[in-house]
Amino acid sequence: MRRSAAQTRLHILDAAYGLFWRQGFLRVSMDEIAARAGITKRAMYQHFRSKDALMAATLAYSSELALERLRQFHRPVTTGDELIESYFAQLREWAKKPKYSGGGFTRAVVELADLRGHPARAIARKHKAAVESWLAGELASTGIASPGDRAREVMLLMEGAMALMLIHGDSSWADSAAQAAKKLLGSRAIAS
Length: 192
Known about the structure:
Layout (H helix, E strand, L loop, with lengths): L4 H19 L6 H8 L3 H7 L3 H21 L8 H16 L8 H8 L7 H23 L5 H22 L3 H15 L6
Helix pairs in contact: 1-2, 1-4, 4-7, 5-9, 6-7, 7-8, 8-9
């Protein structure tokens, strides 16, 4: 049975997503993606005009999936400390997976560091801003003062923890980041 154009496009995105996250964005060829998707390279170019366009679409697709997971994050948390503990515990568990390779959006921007206008960089920036906005909203719901500022600071800790977990192969960096975030939140007055 033939797939619709939308199904084929999604199949290509799934194939690209798996390869990009395992091997890196620049090391994967269009031939590899086509083979993994079970289609011809010509058929793939009917859906994506270039590898750059496919990279951008894959990051956009990944962002949708990641933001949906965040929206489902809601555990019964009432304090900033509970939120931070739960958030970084999930980060720690992610880093314990055998194929952990760090944050894909950050990795993509690092790989494309010399290509400032690349569309994948804009999508990564938009994704990180959406995560920061989500975190600010969650912190606001716990009564933390200046939740936007605190979310920005927690994002710095999260990004640092992801990089150091990858460098050292040690998920305990998430615990250290969580402790630092709790100190940070504890040193700030609760909104009245």
